């Protein structure tokens, strides 16, 4: 994305100032004061935040930092579900609505905190009965339905480690994740429903568990009544059948602060995805704190995050953060454009959503379709609107601010990652906002933009986005590959390197420009070039391939693949279609190349590494920069 950097954006300072009530009434109050409080005594700061939550045993110390390994809330005992569910039930809020779900076609389900707790306990007991114990890995591959959340919380209840795989991944991608984590159980649905169509999930799971010897059972939640799903009785079980036969009470497992809570796979710069490991206490405190500080959720608010619970955004800001804060969450599987592009605004009007959190790719799609859609609906319930996943460019900011926020709602453009577990940089509500800039580090976080040596770069100069101090929700390792964890901390001296390029304005606001590595963000989904390349090469006709991201106005990037065919194979339209369906089957629809070009040669370094940067420059008609390592 370096080519897109336009220094005028940094020089033309333009700000929007939200109404004074935002700062006055917010949980965090004045940004600078909160940040100073944190800097003066980081330990006291986090100690104070953690006091809001319920602990089985308190911590001996807030943090133990042994570069690059951190422990937070050392020796504390807790269970995150006791904070997300029981705490509210006990505090006279058992009848408060925890979750409102809307399906396509208008079905609606409402869960109070009491009901959610009851269902989580029963499903937890069902898992226990199958022999799942603390530390076992459970893979969840489900659509955006309440059962997905129940399954996740049930794992956390008994100390099982959930590994949620987004239901848009294909069989090979799922198989890789099941095998790497050695999942004992896979939980799925027969189908997911998107734009009026049923998409089979169970068949993908059945294919993915071939060659995955760790899997003992598959639990199937069946949505379709006709024809009924055929269950293989030796190892497949029905979700509600086992749940309805389970005991009602399930006390929360006593977890150590540093016990793993979940694994979540994210794309890396090699063909194998990274199993990012998050632990119980630090993650809980980080997700809870940012939910309060950034979204300022109040008791009567209804909050909607459009992400899938299968991504980190869903883990932290649909489930754990908002439930720990006792919020009412709205969840839907309805896509932004079906049955028409007014549907999300209609839902905001109907549900009286107060806080809305979505992605730039959705905002850009709405921009293209025109203002007539949001204008049809009453959006006056909105108080705060947010963005996450990739840079919110100034044009999209302006549109979102004007057409959705009606020049009244602050926009929180939140920068963070699967690895950080919690939001790290944004403009705290009440502070002036600058289009194109995410903002400053949240109180509790120390962020900067530096050069290769770790020296801060001057304002207006591009550099690497880094974090300089440990934070509670930081990931602790890459599952079974700690070296990949250490790489984040040893690439730039004394810093956590996020892998993003950024630039700081004179005001200290940070603009995130995009990835500095071989990850392409397509519609907010991170896709490793290496993953797509190895999927292509696994096709019998392909000898070699190189994949790049090409800037695209709505998706942010599109995927272009350069392919060298095996000797004697001729390019054809049919072959292109074959390759595309091969990638779809292997990795899933989100990773399918939008364009395939057949070539005879790929630019490589003398050591044989493909120089994707050169391909990309050529594609975009710009100067590729230093090509001294290029092998003629
Ligand atoms: C990008 C999603 C600019 C960034 C929470 C990061 C952003 C990657 C923003 C992590 C933002 C996320 N502005 N870029 N507000 N938020 N990104 O792991 O490149 O799916 O490194 O976590 O998304 O993606 P991930």
Structural account:
With 632 residues, the protein is of the alpha/beta class. The protein has 3 domains: 3-79 and 278-515, ANL, N-terminal domain (Rossmann fold, 3-Layer(aba) Sandwich); 112-253, 3-Layer(aba) Sandwich (Rossmann fold); 519-620, ANL, C-terminal domain (GMP Synthetase, Chain A, domain 3). It is built from 20 helices and 32 strands. An 8-stranded mixed sheet has the order 12-11-8-6-7-14-15-25, sandwiched between helices. Helix 3 crosses helix 4, helix 6 packs across helix 7 and helix 11 (280-295) crosses helix 12. The longest helix is centred in the first third of the chain and has 17 residues, at 113-129. The chain starts with 7 loop residues before the first helix and ends in a 12-residue tail after the last helix. The mean pLDDT is 94. 5'-O-[(S)-ethoxy(hydroxy)phosphoryl]adenosine binds at residues 266, 311-313, 388-391, 413-418, 438, 498-500, 512, 515, 521, 526.
CATH fold description of the largest domain: Rossmann fold
Name of the CATH superfamily of the largest domain:
ANL, N-terminal domain
CATH architecture descriptor name of the largest domain: 3-Layer(aba) Sandwich
Figure out the total of helices.
20
What's the level 1 CATH class of the largest domain? Alpha Beta
Count of DSSP strands: 32
What best-fitting shape do the alpha-carbon axes yield?
globular
What is the rounded distance between the termini? 26 Å
For the structure shown, list the relevant keywords.
binds 5'-O-[(S)-ethoxy(hydroxy)phosphoryl]adenosine, 24% strand, 632 residues, GMP Synthetase, Chain A, domain 3, globular, Rossmann fold, alpha/beta, 20 helices
